[in-house]
Amino acid sequence: MQITLSVNGRSHTLDVPENTLLVDIIRERLRLTGTHVGCDTSQCGACTVHMDGRAVKSCTVLAGQADGASITTIEGIGTVDALHPMQAAFRECHALQCGFCTPGMIMTAIDLVENTSQLDGSTVREGLKGNLCRCTGYHNIVKAVLSAADKA
Amino acid sequence: MYRFRHHRPATVDEAARIFSDCEDPAYLGGGMTLIPTMKQRLAAPTDLIDLGRVDGLSGIRVSGEEIRIGAFTRHADVAASREVIHAIPALASLARQIGDMQVRNRGTIGGSVANSDPAADYPAAVVALGATVHTNRRRIAGDDFFKDLFETALEPGEIITAIDFPIPARAAYRKFPQPASRYAIVGVMVAELGGKARVGVTGAGPCAFRATALEEALNRGFDAAHLEGVEIPDAGFNTDMHASAEYRAHLVGVMAGQALAAL
């Protein structure tokens, strides 16, 4: 099937088999490998991207569902010289160990901060329920999200 | 994932027509259950009929004594809806407790209800509030909708278009979640509607049901004392690695008590 989607502000028209997952378009076709595949069963959240402004697990979105959508991946939110405030907070708070879950954590956290009026430790933990950190580095991740929310 | 065809009809009629022409079709809502199920080959439809581009299937409207929620309305939108929070706060709270944020951003109420997962949250509200399920063919009373494990009153090809929830005098939903999946090991909605108690239970049995023994107890007064000693028979209840039937029966009483306290 032919689909057109915008990824990080650039429009792409692609021919893909109908069983293609959004995460495979992002990683394999567009070579944006910052989005990770952890579990492929929609549990771990490492593949989280923004689809029309909301955090979604891209391993559980079909190509045809993403047709016409506006996608933002971890590559689209900041640069090495100008980090997104959430990336800066993760760096300042040392909110990563191995780093595998980090892109998904950051994309979820941005949605959480943008769409929640008041955040505290428990609402951040609740909001990050769909993202797993196998290093169990949650303490500093929560700290980073709260720090970014304070500055937002 | 295996090969399948992905259809994207623009109307309900077109969707139903495609369904009748396909070998082994399935309707696709948000895909939060169906896509993982297909990846595991627990389901292998030849054709997906995506309802995401059908006009008029999403949205929330309050009219008089009911809230109508379009079948393609996502959980996050129900949870955040000012109308729902104002009219049936228990329903917004239930939606906020489904899965995780990313799942709530994609999953739809029609998909959840049509799937009749024994541990899904919405079915408790459909039975507790005496909702009406609208389809492209008819209206189905919430009490008659859930038939068994993943079985509903829907006929092959039938499409849920909207669900009407009567606005109760008060209602509350409490669940004991499986900590990893957030599915309900047991979830109970207690409501007062038309002066009567209604209690909807999910997670405990093969599908959502009304706990009539608890309703009778609460009809003597919305008082925790009346719930004491009410028998919840565990015959036919689910037993799995998370909880036995006996434990689930116990949880029905506990969650009903918590919901009552939150009314």
Folded structure, characterized:
The complex is a heterodimer of chains A (152) and B (263). By secondary structure, chain A is of the alpha+beta class. Chain A has helices at 22-29, 63-66, 85-92, 102-115, 121-127, 138-151; strands at 2-7, 10-15, 48-51, 54-57, 70-72. Chain A has 2 domains: 2-76, Ubiquitin-like (UB roll), CATH 3.10.20; 85-151, DNA polymerase, domain 1 (Orthogonal Bundle). Chain A has 6 helices and 5 strands. In chain A, strands 2-1-5-3-4 form a 5-stranded mixed sheet. In chain B, a hairpin with a 6-residue loop joins β11 and β12 (184-193). The longest helix of chain B has 18 residues, at 245-262. The A-B interface holds A 1, 17-19, 21, 40-43, 45, 48, 51, 54-57, 60-65, 67, 108, 111-112, 115, 127, 129-131 and B 1-6, 8, 28, 31-32, 35-36, 39-40, 48, 50, 52, 76, 80, 99-103, 105-106, 180-182.
Amino- and carboxy-terminal Cα gap of chain A: 40 Å
**Which term fits the overall shape of chain B?**
globular
CATH superfamily of the largest domain in chain A: Beta-grasp domain
The counted number of beta strands of chain A is 5
Q: Largest interface, with Cβ-Cβ < 8 Å? A: A-B, 31 and 29 residues
Reported CATH architecture of the largest domain in chain A? Roll
Gyration radius of chain A, rounded: 15 Å
Top keywords for this entry?
heterodimer; A: 152 residues; alpha+beta; Ubiquitin-like (UB roll); DNA polymerase, domain 1; 2 domains; 5-stranded mixed β-sheet; 5 strands; 36% helix; 15% strand; globular; B: 263 residues; Uridine Diphospho-n-acetylenolpyruvylglucosamine Reductase, domain 2; Uridine Diphospho-n-acetylenolpyruvylglucosamine Reductase, domain 3; 5-stranded antiparallel β-sheet; 4-stranded antiparallel β-sheet; 12 helices
